[in-house]
What does this fold into?
Amino acid sequence: MLTRFLFLVAVALIDQSAQAQKAEVTFGVSGVCGMCEDRIEATFDQKGIVAADYDLEKKTIHVVYKAKKWNEESLHKLATGVGHDTDKYKATDEQYANMPGCCKYRDPKSCSDSCGDKQR
Ligand SMILES: [Cu+2]
It folds into this structure.
């Protein structure tokens, strides 16, 4: 009985330390189309990032990451690095300019004019 109790305590402790290393966050990332979604999710495909799911309708990303390797700032910078503004940081003009016309979310006209199947 005591052995079983100790075993359960050990399992609980291991479980807690595994949990402590992981963190999750949801923040806003600008995007307009499926290509944006693909690009954003692809750039979050990194070592130490367990899961990243971009919601195009809400324009938010949910990230599960290892807290040792990443923090909120470095995660935001991943998105701005490929041209997408977040709710805390802005992509530079050069980063923004690298995106295809279809994804120029700061200029809605550019999006609707060139977005289509041919872009995918
Ligand atoms: Cu796009």
Summary: The first helix runs from residue 2 to 21. Residues 22-119 form a domain with the Alpha-Beta Plaits fold (CATH 3.30.70.100).
